[in-house]
Amino acid sequence: MAIERPLNIFLVGVSCVGKTNIGKRLADEIGYKFFDLDSEIERYFNESISCIQSQFLSDYSYRKSVSKVLRKIIEENKDNNFVMALPPSGLRDWYYKELKKTDPLIIALNDSPENILKRITFYDDDSNKIEKKLNKREKQYYLRDIEKDIAFFKKYNANADYQININGLNIQESVKKLKALINTLDNINQGNSF
Does residue 124 come out as left (phi exceeding 0), alpha (psi in the -120 to 50 range) or beta? Predict the structure, then answer.
């Protein structure tokens, strides 16, 4: 792959759509750095996301404060290629303002609620993974919650440069689809449909 200029690729989508796993694999295969914004925020503040969020009265004020981490990563890597997994709110207010200061390639990953439910991961307040087996009633609850998240974030994710449907694809197939998009963009250096 021969990208002419430093390329910053940002992956957005609802929780558990696969941004981090797909982003890591994509970055590895194309020789880019990889960042997960939530992990970088935790590293910067030396606290878990839930602990940091509890210090703010609103999600808006939280994003305003922690957007400096996104700015720092972008500034420190302005001459490097990287892939970053953004949280579901990645294209809202303060995060989006930071992204628009650059020339990013923003890709929204979309999948069915049922597939996302299969990948759902639980964490405690210290960001430690929790093993939890859902019963039928809990699955129905989380499925409705995922559907609500998809509907809510759809308007923000519409600001992405590209929408990639990964429904039914595994990680490698999803990465292959993203690489095809990047190669196409590199070859034509224009357009926005895939």
Answer: beta
